């Protein structure tokens, strides 16, 4: 019979172990199904197509118009719609306007007309080049944001795995402590002699109940956060997460600060903003009354009627210089706006980088603090555990130390719980510091 129990135990143990999810599979699920990562891909797609849209201004615009007329009027003017001649506006956020215009063809009654039109903007005071530069920078920023989002969500995944597994261990310790203190409380509550030890036990009982409710709430929230991170995950997955350990050794604070200033994607994105607004400002400086824009146009038209008369055709070619002699000071306003946007981008970079350096310093100091705290808590666990072992020996010799032993076991469980929490906090801080300083690729995550 004993062999049967052993076989059943080994079967369920092996089955549970086999069902542990691999970290590589979790990462694949995250990158495929996470909503924020999917949105970052859409933003990159919008930026790329926005660049295609504005680059169209570098090419000649070819339009075809056609019209036919019948009726009693001597002459009719028909309006033919074209979808790509002049820039328009869109009411949809983040989407360029359609390029539309109306082409007027004057034709007689019972007649038809057609025209092919070719337009090319040769010089637009560098507005087009500045716009293209801004869209190119937007594409690069979207790529950096996508990479940042993927790293952030991976950090969230690792942090949640650490959190959920840590809470499992803490709950195990708390359940054991609650059992111990519950049994001791029932025994000593029957006694009429209520000494200081009893009141201390009573206090520990309610303290454990409070901590237990706190931890259970934290576990529930961590589970819901996990399913928000991977919406397609099965509900049972939170019970099959692998145990992981994070390893990365930051050398010194000065090196981390230099890495942030040289490698951080946040700094790269702010540099791109500065470049974009600088180019816009330089382009706006060309908007002067004495600096024209230059455009070329060529067209061929064909006219005819339905009476069988001979068709007529003609062609035109033109070059046009446009001087904005007075625009109500709108160009001055745009130029000033571009200048202040450029200045704002530089000041924002300086301000944000200083704040980030302070945050990096805090995280680095937190790592050292957690390391010292962990050594302290490990020594406390050893001390509390040793006290429990000694009291068990004393109890075995026949001495009445059950109440003292119960209190010692409670203190031991609380020490274990605090140690688990510190381990989790230190590894989460390590992940955050690595990402901010651009060293996330050096972080090693091992399955245990």
In short:
The chain has about 450 residues and is of the alpha+beta class.
Explain this structure.
The chain is 62% helix and 16% strand. With 448 residues, the chain is an alpha+beta fold. It has a domain at 126-289 and 351-448: Outer membrane efflux proteins (OEP). A four-stranded antiparallel beta sheet has the order 1-4-6-7, with no helix packed on it. The two termini are 34 Å apart. 20% of the residues are buried.
What share of residues is helical?
Answer: 55-70%
Q: Spans with pLDDT under 50 lasting ≥5 residues? A: 1-18, 78-93
Tell me the major beta sheet.
4 strands, antiparallel
Termini separation: 34 Å
- Averaged pLDDT: 82
Task: Give the helices and strands, then pairings.
Elements: H1 2-18, H2 23-33, H3 35-55, E1 61-69, E2 75-82, E3 101-108, E4 111-123, H4 127-189, H5 196-229, E5 244-247, H6 253-263, H7 265-284, E6 293-305, E7 312-322, H8 330-396, H9 402-436, E8 444-447
Helix pairs in contact: 2-4, 3-4, 4-5, 4-7, 4-9, 5-9, 6-8, 7-8, 8-9
List keywords for this structure.
single chain, 448 residues, alpha+beta, Outer membrane efflux proteins (OEP), 4-stranded antiparallel sheet, two-stranded antiparallel sheet, 9 helices, 8 strands, disordered N terminus
């Amino acid at each position: 019979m004993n062999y049967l129990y052993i076989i059943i135990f080994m079967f369920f143990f092996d089955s549970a172990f086999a069902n542990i999810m691999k970290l590589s599979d979790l990462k694949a699920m995250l990158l495929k199904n996470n909503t924020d990562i999917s949105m970052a891909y859409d933003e990159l797609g919008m930026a790329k197509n926005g660049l295609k849209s504005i680059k169209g201004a570098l090419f000649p615009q070819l339009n075809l118009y056609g019209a036919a007329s019948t009726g009693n009027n001597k002459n009719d003017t028909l309006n033919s719609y074209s979808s790509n001649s002049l820039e328009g506006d869109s009411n949809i956020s983040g989407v360029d306007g359609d390029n539309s215009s109306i082409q007027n063809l004057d034709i007689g009654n019972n007649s038809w007309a057609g025209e092919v039109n070719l337009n090319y903007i040769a010089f637009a005071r560098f507005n087009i080049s500045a716009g293209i530069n801004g869209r190119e920078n937007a594409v690069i920023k979207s790529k950096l944001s996508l990479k940042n989002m993927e790293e952030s969500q991976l950090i969230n995944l690792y942090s949640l795995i650490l959190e959920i597994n840590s809470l499992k261990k803490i709950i195990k310790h708390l359940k054991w402590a609650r059992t111990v203190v519950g049994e001791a409380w029932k025994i000593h509550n029957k006694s009429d002699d209520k000494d200081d030890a009893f009141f201390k036990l009573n206090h520990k009982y309610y303290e454990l109940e409070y901590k237990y409710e706190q931890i259970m709430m934290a576990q529930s929230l961590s589970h819901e956060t996990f399913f928000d991170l991977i919406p397609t995950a099965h509900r049972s997955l939170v019970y099959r997460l692998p145990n992981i350990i994070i390893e990365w050794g930051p050398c010194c604070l000065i090196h981390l600060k230099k890495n942030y200033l040289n490698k951080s994607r946040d700094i790269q994105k702010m540099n791109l903003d500065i470049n974009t607004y600088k180019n816009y400002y330089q382009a706006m400086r060309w908007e002067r009354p004495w600096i024209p824009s230059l455009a070329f146009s060529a067209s061929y038209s064909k006219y005819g009627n339905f009476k069988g008369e001979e068709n007529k055709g003609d062609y035109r070619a033109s070059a046009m210089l446009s001087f904005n002699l007075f625009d109500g000071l709108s160009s001055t306003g745009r130029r000033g706006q571009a200048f202040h946007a450029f200045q704002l981008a530089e000041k924002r970079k300086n301000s944000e980088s200083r704040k980030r350096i302070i945050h990096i310093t805090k995280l680095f100091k937190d790592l050292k603090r957690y390391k010292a705290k962990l050594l302290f808590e490990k020594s406390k666990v050893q001390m509390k555990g040793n006290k429990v072992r000694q009291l068990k020996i004393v109890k075995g010799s026949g001495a009445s130390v059950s109440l003292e032993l119960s209190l010692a076991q409670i203190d031991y469980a609380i020490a274990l719980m605090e140690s688990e929490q510190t381990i989790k906090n230190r590894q989460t801080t390590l992940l955050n510091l690595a990402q901010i300083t651009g060293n996330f690729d050096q972080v090693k995550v091992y399955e245990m």
